């Protein structure tokens, strides 16, 4: 009987310690309002806009975003107006920010495919965004808010 009580006491102590903050991973949480807006990738002409427009008709809890690139060095210049002309086609993605993860689901024209990408946000404030594609920690991408 005494051993059972000791075992229960030890189990209780272990459970209490496991729930302590010192054992929990402290994941940073970023503000959706800081993310929303127009961003320019550092050293490029690649733009991303995170809108406030809900994508609930396709996926609850997601918002719409889109991207374009003004680099015409290979004749591939894409203007923001080009992307807006094909609402929710190529260049568009649905996004959701949760703690330090930014989930993007990229849309392809004519319903071909949805391509999910998970980014880990390492910095986000009203003027700066830095993240990396999950699994590629050494390949950080940074943006400045426009």
Describe the structure in your own words.
This protein is an alpha+beta fold. The protein has a single domain (28-145), classed as Lipocalin (Beta Barrel). The protein contains three helices and eight strands; from the N terminus they run ααβββαβββββ. It has helices spanning 2-18, 32-35, 80-85; strands spanning 37-41, 46-54, 63-69, 92-98, 101-107, 114-124, 128-133, 141-145. An eight-stranded antiparallel β-barrel has the order 1-2-3-4-5-6-7-8.
Describe what is shown at a glance.
The chain has 146 residues and is an alpha+beta fold. The chain contains three helices and eight strands. The radius of gyration is 21 Å and the shape is globular.
Keywords, separated by commas or semicolons:
146 residues; alpha+beta; Lipocalin; eight-stranded antiparallel barrel; 3 helices; 8 strands; globular
Run of helices and strands: HHEEEHEEEEE
Structural class: alpha+beta
Number of separate helices: 3
Q: What is the CATH domain class?
A: Mainly Beta
The whole-number mean of residue pLDDT values reads 86
Cross-sheet strand order for the largest sheet: 1-2-3-4-5-6-7-8
The overall strand count is 8
Distance between the termini: 69 Å
Strand content: 35-45%
CATH fold field value? Lipocalin
Helix content: 10-25%
Provide the domain count.
Answer: 1
Major sheet attributes = 8 strands, antiparallel, barrel
Q: So, CATH architecture?
A: Beta Barrel
General form:
globular
Could you state the oligomeric state of the chains shown?
Answer: single chain
Low-confidence stretches: none
Q: What is the CA-based Rg, rounded?
A: 21 Å
